[in-house]
Specification:
Blueprint: H1 3-10, H2 12-43, H3 45-60, H4 63-73, H5 80-104, H6 108-116, H7 121-151, H8 164-173, H9 176-206, H10 213-238, E1 246-251, H11 254-269, E2 274-280, H12 282-290, E3 296-300, H13 301-308, H14 317-332, E4 335-343, E5 346-351, H15 352-358, H16 363-366, E6 374-377, H17 385-394, E7 400-403, H18 406-414, E8 420-424, H19 429-432, E9 435-437, E10 449-454, H20 462-469, H21 477-488, H22 494-507
Parallel strand pairs: 1-2, 6-7, 6-8
Antiparallel strand pairs: 3-10, 4-10, 5-8, 5-9
Helix pairs in contact: 2-3, 2-5, 2-7, 2-10, 3-5, 4-5, 5-7, 6-7, 7-9, 8-9, 9-10, 11-22, 13-14, 21-22
Length: 508
């Protein structure tokens, strides 16, 4: 077993427990909410249409958007709660719809017969309609369960542990072992859960058949056993775990994972117990740190300047860094620990041979032909103020602007699927793929010093400040680029890159 596989398998219990809790809790709440709503809708035409329309509309929303909206509505809260709320909303449609359909398919003569023997409306519902509709209702629950298992992988984006940790980390770091384990684990859990609920469906359909008694008992015993195992594992994951002193956060690309690993290693060496929340969006992690749900992460001065301060000018690296640090402290109550020493700027980049073919050295050279070029950016770039400033400064736009996962963005330009990308200057793939950074003579793109931002509560701990303060101005552009290269180009692990940076820091 190679080191990479061993490292990934060691994470499996934690990720499995997190995913299982998300799935079971969200599914249980979805059932508890949706079936009563479905019963209500089946009894009232005034409720039926608006309810089914509402749950259908929710289903049309992109799942990532739902997660972002829930986080915003909860005041920036991350973790288990917003993930469960989003999953419950997504689970409702098949359960509500199948409950309504199942109850409406009960023959009228059956209902009349029940009334004829003196049953009340409540008794008819509980003893006749629901038992007869149960197979259809369970079919809806099966669909919801499979959806929930799949969508739970996205919960990683809001700081909830799931198999998505494998998938998103693997995509960003080109670790196919991680992606494969996460995908297979989610698929297996979906199949097992579907089979389990399918067993209940079989029981509901065959409970009165002659000759099925023994089979019924065997299936029932097996199902009860599986349920107990599932809930035991779920309960185990909810047991009190050793408390942590600090939570280290990170955004969803390689450099962030590496620095989060470095911060974790340094703090653990100092005797602190650390947990991580990785793969978070820019706005999510900023708000989470301001709210004290994340204690420290790597931010960039240009991001604060443009996204939080809404500045469009470029007064220079030193001023942007200083004012960004002051802003996070004065406006959001966080603590700026200082810069790590390297920059990770956005920059337009092309294959060297493509740039030579088109005669492009600067962004100005691109202006006459921009409307014939296809550009690609990461998941955020074309929605960020930096792109707006670049576009307006040069009065430039492209024929197409495509959005890619970071790792796939570099692959796309390397394979000539796009003409240029919004690259990261500290990314080792710039050199590895033979890309040329297109000069920005009008300084439209901001400086991006990597700076550590901490929560107000964490900043009250002197040892915490001392430990991370020792990292300030200790990582050069070259060192960070090499650390990224170890993962993105050489196929090394995050741990390999962290060990490299620690050795560089120790030698200084």
């Amino acid at each position: 077993m190679n080191d990479n596989l061993r490292e990934q398998l060691l994470l499996l219990p934690e990720y499995f427990q997190g995913h299982l809790v998300l799935t079971l809790v969200a599914l249980a709440l979805g059932i508890a909410i949706s079936i009563p709503l479905g019963i209500w809708a089946s009894q009232s035409q005034a409720v039926k249409r608006p309810l089914l329309t509402t749950v259908s509309v929710i289903q049309t929303f992109p799942s990532v958007a739902i997660l972002a909206l829930v986080v915003a509505l909860l005041g920036g809260q991350i973790g288990l709660v917003p993930a469960i709320v989003a999953l419950v909303l997504y689970s409702m449609l098949p359960i509500v719809r199948n409950t309504v359909s199942g109850l409406e398919t009960i023959p009228d003569d059956v209902i009349e017969a029940a009334r004829g023997i003196g049953m009340s409306s409540g008794q008819i519902l509980m003893k006749v309609r629901l038992p007869l509709a149960l197979p259809i209702i369970i079919a809806g629950i099966r669909t919801a369960a499979v959806w929930t298992v799949g969508l739970a992988t996205l919960s990683t984006l809001v700081g909830a542990t799931s198999f998505g940790n494998y998938i998103f980390t693997g995509l960003q770091t080109r670790n196919l072992v991680s992606v494969t384990i996460g995908s297979l684990a989610a698929a297996i859990l979906a199949v097992v859960l579907d089979s389990l609920i399918g067993g209940f469906q079989w029981l509901s359909e065959n409970r009165n058949e002659k000759g099925a008694v023994s089979k019924f008992k065997r299936v029932r015993t097996a199902l009860i056993g599986l349920v107990l195992v599932g809930f035991s594992l779920s309960a185990y994951s909810l047991l009190q775990k050793p408390s942590v002193d600090f939570i280290v956060g990170g955004k969803g690309f390689t450099e962030q994972y590496i620095i989060a690993g470095l911060l974790t290693a340094e703090l653990e060496e100092a005797g602190f117990r650390i947990d991580q929340r990785l793969g978070l969006g820019t706005e999510v992690i900023y708000e989470a740190t301001a709210n004290g749900m994340v204690d420290v992460y790597l931010e960039y001065s240009g991001t604060v300047w443009a996204n939080r301060m809404n500045e469009t000018s470029n007064p220079g690296r030193k001023e942007v860094l200083e004012k960004a640090g002051n802003f996070v402290e004065e406006n959001d109550g966080m603590h700026s620990l200082g810069p790590l020493g390297f920059q990770n700027l956005y920059a337009l980049a092309m294959r060297r041979d493509r740039a030579a073919e088109l005669g492009i050295e600067t962004i100005e050279d691109m202006i006459p032909i921009a409307d014939t070029l296809v550009a690609a950016g990461d998941l955020e770039f074309f929605g960020r103020p930096e792109w707006i400033t670049l576009r307006d400064t040069y009065n430039i736009d492209f024929a197409q602007k495509l959005t890619f996962d970071t790792a796939l963005m570099y692959t796309a330009v390397d394979r000539r699927q796009v003409d240029l990308i919004a690259a990261y200057t500290s990314d080792g793939r710039v050199d590895a793929y033979g890309l040329k950074i297109i000069a920005d003579p009008r300084n439209a793109l901001l400086p991006y010093d990597g700076m550590l931002v901490a929560s107000s509560s964490a900043a009250k701990n002197p040892l915490f400040l001392e430990t991370l303060g020792a990292l300030v101005n200790r990582i050069s552009d070259e060192a960070m680029r090499e650390a990224n290269r170890i993962v993105d180009v050489n196929g090394g692990t995050i741990s390999d890159a962290v060990n490299y940076l620690r050795s560089v820091i120790k030698d200084k």
